[in-house]
Amino acid sequence: MSDEQWEQLLRTRRQAVAGLFGIGAAAAGISSLPANASTRPRESRLASRSPVEGIFNVRQFGARGDGKALDTRAINRAIEAAADAGGGVVRFPAGNYLSFSIRLKSNVAIWFDPGATVIGAEPSAGAGYDAPEPGPGNHYEDYGHRHWHNALLWGVGLENIALLGPGLIYGKGLLRTMGGNPVPGHGDKCISLKDCHNVTIRDISILHGGHFGILATGVDNLTIDNIKIDTNRDGMDIDCCKNVRLSNLTVNSPWDDAIVLKSSYALNYARPTESVAISNCMVSGGYQEGTLLDGTFKPFPAGARVPHTGRIKFGTESNGGFKNITISNCIFESCAGLALETVDGALLEDVSISNITMRNILGGGPIFLRLGSRMRGPAGSAIGQLRRVNISGVAVSSAPSAFCSVLSGIPGHAIEDVRLSDITIVSRGGGTLAEAALKPREKANHYPEPWMFGPLPAYGFYIRHVKRLTMANIEFRILAPEARPAIVLDDAEGADFIHLKAPLSLSGRTFALSNVRDFDVALSRPVPDTYFSRVTTESL
């Protein structure tokens, strides 16, 4: 797009941009620099040559955009000029901008043109990413969660910021992990934000994001919309954030989670992630990195050592808890299933999940709810609670044979008030009588994963330490003969099953009950209507 075309387009949008980001008169076209601009360095004065006032073109601050010269200083000068002007839009025209750390500023939006790519540079002697700042002084979370400056784009303590446009952020020089020790000059995340509010990320794409494509910690009023992430570890981690909207996202992350809600101790206090809506997203762990973005969607070769994680998850870091969250209209493709975990002493409550499709679920069952006692946090914290979760409208094809969906608390700490409805699960089947007799260990303080208990004694749901559970309109189908029952309940109270359909297993059992109180099944087949006030061991 030519500068003349930009002038025509942006002249009509200046007032809208100013209102959206709260960036004042500068973005509205009143003034692009303070009155004393003539006394400032030449690089700042170049902003006055912008075709539209309030638009700061990185090329006019010295950026080459040729993919060879380092453009870090020029990019940061453009952002500083926009901030000094009271706010504005920093524009990346088409080109390849090689850079180390880009420091975001309040009241500044970054716009990436079609064809604009910011490339994370490879560190060399004397040149690299910003050093990681001192962390919170604890070790209750992984290294990557404790630092924000060592990123390709970062901001701390900011307000009214945005990353916009159809351009690409390519974390080529970022590390996938740095473990517990920093590597001088290296960065490990594409976009890193801490203690910010009023943040919008829209329409961009991220390739090869390092440890995190996006890490947002303590960020409130956060909107992430219509972005694509094709990466080598986590797609995005939303940690200790409030009032968050994640919509129309496409994330391929075979080696780790796609969309993760966390509530770590990285702020040095426990803060919940709350008031979050996730909608209209596709998550995957099944495609070779880069092939989602280029549209070829290439699967991994048979036998490739890839975990295919790629899921939506709450946890594992769960010091502050999760409250008031919805997930709707999402697609899981060739990845692990949905995981809701609280294991570090906090509440997970008031969650509604609806209209989910899952195909080719790998590594565990399609639904995993876990209340545990890992307790990675300050000493003396109480074990948390997991309660009031509704999951409905789920269609699953090709669920794994060795695993099933799991709802598991721990002794003395039950998951409470869960309702599952209108769910169809097609599993591969093939379970044996030996597997049906398994008694999984509690593993109360272990790291939670859907496969943590090993092969399970049910092909549909394994339910342990649960109170007040309703399952309605649930249908199971199996693709190979199955000796395990559809549902195993162990230490359950107040379990109601209405209109359940399950193929009869080779053992003739649909339910296996152990230490169950107030159990009711109705309008189900092949099981007759049955009620038990209390039962020690029973099969149906």
Topology:
Elements: H1 3-11, H2 14-21, H3 24-27, H4 42-45, E1 55-57, E2 66-70, H5 72-84, E3 88-92, E4 95-99, E5 102-103, E6 108-112, E7 116-120, E8 153-156, E9 159-164, E10 168-170, E11 189-194, E12 197-202, E13 205-207, E14 212-217, E15 220-225, E16 228-230, E17 234-239, E18 242-247, E19 250-252, E20 259-263, E21 273-279, E22 282-284, E23 312-318, E24 322-333, E25 338-342, E26 347-359, E27 367-371, E28 385-399, E29 405-408, E30 415-427, H6 433-436, E31 461-478, E32 487-501, E33 511-522, E34 530-539
Parallel strand pairs: 1-3, 2-4, 3-6, 4-7, 5-8, 6-9, 7-10, 8-11, 9-12, 10-13, 11-14, 12-15, 13-16, 14-17, 15-18, 16-19, 17-20, 18-21, 19-22, 20-23, 21-24, 22-24, 23-25, 24-26, 25-27, 26-28, 27-29, 28-30, 29-31, 30-31, 31-32, 32-33
Antiparallel strand pairs: 33-34
What key phrases describe this protein's structure?
540 residues, mainly beta, 34-stranded mixed sheet, elongated
Could you provide a short overview of the structure?
By secondary structure, the chain is mainly β. The protein contains 6 helices and 34 strands.
